[in-house]
Amino acid sequence: MIARLNVTPMAPQEYLEWESTQESKYAYVNGEVFAMTGGTIPHNQIALNLASALKAHLRGKGCLVVMAGVKVEVSQNGPYHYPDVMVSCDERVGVACPEDIRNAIKLIRYPSLIVEVLSPSTADYDRGNNFTHYRQIPTLQEYVLISADQISVDRYRRISSRRWDLQTYIETETLSLASVDWQAPIELLYEDVRFAENAEEG
After folding, report:
1. Domains: count for the chain
2. Distances (CA, A) of 58 to 41, 72, 180
3. Is 59 within the bounds of a domain?
């Protein structure tokens, strides 16, 4: 759900200043900006189901749970992406220098968990380039990919600075996220979700 925008390449600070004046959201990679396009109802419901469950679980624990409208900063030079769900329990969240306060309320710098809900148009990018970018974030402990077409979840967990463990979950299994000390049946993520083939039958 991204589309390349034909604009002059920008430096990171130029992008941040430019995007703050735009009505739409734009990712930023290597000087280029990409428009964030709309998603499907199943995509939105899955993200909302997970974010709501994590919000309830982490209430009062000093963690921040955000959804697609907030971008993540991989480094001060970019890239900048808009994950579907993020969690940060880092004590530095919300702390910023006065001159940086405008950026601090618009982006996350220290996520421990990033989640992307996969669509046919972005699945390869989320598994490839996005994960290459995200694993550069030192605080990131888990990266989760949730299919919006069928009940299937991939969870990548950081083992060391350069090693990640992959576990795939299917229907009837329980998803475990050590980064936020949370586990729940996979069915919870898909509550009220109607897949395309089921929608056609209905």
Report:
1. 1
2. 25, 20, 8
3. yes
**pTM of the prediction?**
0.89
Cα dihedral sign, 81-87-89-91: positive
Nearest to 151 by CA among 38, 36, 16, 46: 46
Dig out the tokens for 105 from the structure: 């309320």
CATH number at residue 63: 3.90.1570.10
- Interval 115-149: pLDDT, tens: 999 977 666 667 778 899 999 999 999 999 999 99
Question: Domain range spanning residue 159?
Answer: 39-201
Question: Which helix (H) or strand (E) element contains residue 49?
Answer: helix 41-58
CA 140 to chain CA centroid, nearest Å = 11
Dihedral Cα 53, 138, 157, 50, nearest 10 deg: 10
- 199: pLDDT strictly greater than 50: no
Among 182, 120, 129, 131, smallest CA distance to 154 is for 131
